[in-house]
Each structure stands twice: as C-alpha cells, then as structure tokens.
Amino acid sequence: MNIQRHIETACLDQLKSSRKVLLIYGPRQVGKTTLVKQLGKLSGWKVKYLSADLLDNELLLMQRDIQTISELTEGYQLLIIDEAQRVQDIGLALKVLYDELPHLKVIATGSSSFEMANRAAEPLTGRKTVFHLLPFSLSEIIAGKNKFELDQQLEELLRFGMYPEIFMASANQKCNFLGEICDSYLYMDVLQLTNVKYTAKIRDLLRLLAFQVGQLVSVNELSQTLSINRETVERYIDLLEKAFVIFRLPSYNRNLRKEVAKMDKIYFYDIGIRNYLIDNLKPLHLRIDAGSLWENFVIAERRKQLLYNRKMVHSYFWRTYTGAEIDYVEEGEDGLMGFEIKMTKDNVKPPKLWQEEYHGGFQLINRKNYLDLLLEGML
Question: For the domain with range 171-374, which CATH number is right: 1.10.10.10, 3.90.1150.180, 2.70.150.10, 3.30.70.120?
C-alpha cells in the first residue's frame, strides 16, 4: 500500500525552486526514509543516498572534507543524508555542502529534532527549510476511501494509532509491531543523545502521563510519585516533547482570578503508543477511558493538520476553578474558537463565563462531525 504523505508535494516544490537545504524532522518509524527516497524518484535527478547510521558515512560527514565529498557526489544532483542527527556538528557539514557545492541539492532527515535542530540552526541560518513528518494523518489515509469508510475504521485507529507499519499491518500483527516501536525506538533518541541519569524513570513518567491524558498535569505530583526532583521531571517532559512523543497544551487565560493558569495538559502524538504504555488495547466498548482516547485523538489530528498546513494558530485548553471548561481552544487570524470534544454527545452549551468574557466561537466535536474539522483544508 502506497500512501502519499501530505508534505510530499510541498517538499518537492521547495526542492526544485530553492537551493536551501531541506530538513525533515520527525520520530523514528514514521516513514522519513521512504519519503526522501520517493522525493528522489520524483525529482528526476540522479540521487546519492547516505545513511548516517553507517559509521563510514558518519565519519565522512564529520570530517567535512569538501574534496572527498565532491568526488563522492560527482555526477549527482541530489544528496540525501538520512539519520543526520548522528553526525557531530551536522549543521557545519551541511553549511559546507551548501556553500561549496552550489550545484548539489541536499535533503537531511533527523529523528531527534532537539538534537539536530540545535546542531543545524545557527550554521544553516538562511540556508534551510524545515518540514516535520509524524505518524499518518487522517488526510493521508483517506486516499481511496470515502468519509463513511474512514469512519468505519475509527475504532481501529483509536486502539492502535497510525504509525505506518502498524496501520498497514494485519490485525494479528498490530500489537506486536506496536510493542516493538515502544520498546525499541520510542526512547532511543532521548536515551542515546542526552545525559539521562534515570532511564527507567523516563518509561515510568510516560506511563503516568498516559493515564492522565485530558487531565491537568501536576509536575510536583509526578516528582513525588517518581521520587525525582521537579527540575528533572520538567527536563524529561521537554525531551519527550522534542522527540515527538508527547506535546503540551497550556491553559488559555486573561489573568482572570477564576481561571486555572499554571498547569498544562499533555497528549500523545500517537494514541496507539499511549494505549500500549498503559497496557490497554481493548475495544472501546470494554474501556472506561474512551472519552480520553477521543479527546487525545482529535487534538493530535488537529495538531498535525495545522502543522502540515503551516497555519499559525495558538492552541490551548480553558478551565476555571469553579469547574467550567473547554477541552480545546484555538486563537489565530480568524479569532478565538473553543471546541468541546465528546464522542457521543449531541448537544453541549458553551460555559457562561466563556461567552461573557471572550465572546469567542464554540463548537461540539463528536462522531458525527469530527471529519469536517480534521480534514478541513487537507483534501
């Protein structure tokens, strides 16, 4: 099954219209290698592919010997460097390629944005264009299906998520493949590329966060439960976010005394990862967390949509100390919009304080209309 990634066309257009180095960031196992090889084919150019997973290639790029690289790429129009975050001072290596070999187009992928971005940002100022690749989105998997058929597949997506290998696997393979990603790849970048002292605590932290999807997250409580200091917990959360495992949703407030302002909510980019961490891949009718699953799914898919459309929108949740809340809030060029995310409810009224203080829009997102929001502008 060949599923076209949403950023493919934009990457190809950028590659053909600009000399800038094309950087593609994203977690492991989401199809970055497949994508860049496809871009190479579509470009029509002669392509040189280097994987920095191979020590010889890593050392070659680290040395930044322009004569050797020039000889290596002679006759080629496009150089692809996969897993480029492995190369020390990769930004300087890419800068040399850009400055010294103007005829050569370059694509580099990185599974650890926090590592690669730090190494590439300053040397490549004005010389790079960045794209992100995440697990499949609804807009990608709907190809060849109508909305009814996609909706029929919803429960499977809510259980196993949308990592490419898992999405395309048979029913009896999905659980094993999901376990392999969680056990072999999920923590790899954080553990290998940073000085993490308590590796087991990373796994314990993610499990705690998986149980708290849709709830306010107290770093102090996490610190006490894990028996590590608050600063370490915050650092681990930051690393996991930069490695595209989780993302934070801050609270929206205008400094009203009634509003909760100091705690975030934390969601998973892939709901299958979340389910595996809590050891619960049961069908929805056997679960008590279907509401949390639905909330995480909708917000994560909306996040992908905004990212791929490069739409400048700030995302929040909203809650007051008296219990009034809105699951998801967006503030952008079109103003302020609140979304209540309930799988089965057909009618929800906006909180009175929301109407009185903000005068923003309000919409219920349920099984009947979720595709209108999550496929908006994507097809």
Answer: 1.10.10.10
